[in-house]
Amino acid sequence: MQIFKTKSDLSSSLSSLADSLIGFVPTMGALHNGHLELLRQAKKQCSVVVCSIFVNPTQFSNKEDINSYPNTLSDDITKLEKINCDVLYVPDVSDLYTIDEKTKHFNLNGLDNVMEGKFRKGHFDGVATIIEKFFNIIKPHKAYFGQKDLQQILVVKSLTKQLNLPIEIVSVPTIRKENGLAMSSRNKLLSPKHLETASMLYKSLEFCKANKGKFSITNLKNCIKIQFSEQLEVDLEYLEFVDANNLQNISFFQENNNAICIAAYLGGVRLIDNIIF
Ligand code: PAF
């Protein structure tokens, strides 16, 4: 695997691969099986796979959150080599941002006003800012994102369309632990006890799906809220029933494209999950 620290070295190396189908997997490191699944898909579908590891400052509004983000670079490199990733881009902040550079503002068609966008102000402008930079440097044919971050996928699709970039955005199903907990780098920050309790996010989503013919969305929401209020160590931030294509709230289940999205804090760690059916 070739490792590049600067965009100039990376792009001059990639420019010699004119005939290759380039797959791109952007990450913030602390790689887990969910990331490896993105890389496996990319390896299957592309001739050159580029992974980036970069903890993007503009998408964090909370300094503590960015400072506590796990950093496991040497383990990450071992995992990437094992999976035969071709290229790793691991830049410093100064390679991608000038001093005092401001986050760009994007028109994300309201996708950034709900759920994650509502509770993490400016988050998606930060994501779009860095993804636009990556896409311009790497010029991938396909880019891979995990379904756990459903809202991020829709934001990136909208961005790609607005910028008229010929990049296919591939959504890869969420990989889960045995107890249902979605793989996330933040799981590393959970105690063994909280790792068990955290499975209630997915269990709640599955409960709603299983009972969609039996209860109304309002009743399901109330039921889950009560379950969470009984668990003192878990703070439910939101539970939304939306159309998976545009994230608009739904009052009734549709034939398909229903998404239930959840965010909760456990021991100070913020977790999100969703299911689509
Ligand atoms: O999902 C992530 O890890 C990040 O939001 C991404 C896509 C790497 C952009 O910084």
Provide a quick synopsis of the model:
The protein has 277 residues and is of the alpha/beta class. It is 38% helix and 20% strand.
Question: How would you characterize the overall build of this protein?
Answer:
This protein is α/β, with parallel strands linked by helices. The chain folds into 2 domains: 2-172, 3-Layer(aba) Sandwich (Rossmann fold); 185-276, 2-Layer Sandwich (Pantoate--beta-alanine Ligase, Chain: A,domain 2), CATH 3.30.1300. The chain is 38% helix and 20% strand. The protein has 11 helices and 9 strands. Strands 1-4-3-2-5-6 form a 6-stranded parallel beta sheet, sandwiched between helices. The chain has a 3-stranded antiparallel beta sheet with strand order 7-8-9, with helices on one face. α7 (123-138) crosses α8. The radius of gyration is 19 Å and the shape is globular. It starts with a strand and ends with a strand. The model has no long low-confidence stretch (mean pLDDT 96). The structure holds pantoate. Pantoate (PAF) is lined by residues 26-28, 56, 59, 127, 130, 149, 152.
Please render the helix and strand layout as text:
Blueprint: E1 2-4, H1 7-14, E2 22-27, H2 33-45, E3 48-53, H3 63-67, H4 73-82, E4 87-89, H5 93-96, H6 116-119, H7 123-138, E5 142-146, H8 150-162, E6 168-172, H9 192-197, H10 199-210, H11 217-229, E7 234-243, E8 258-266, E9 269-276
Parallel strand pairs: 1-4, 2-3, 2-5, 3-4, 5-6
Antiparallel strand pairs: 7-8, 8-9
Helix pairs in contact: 7-8
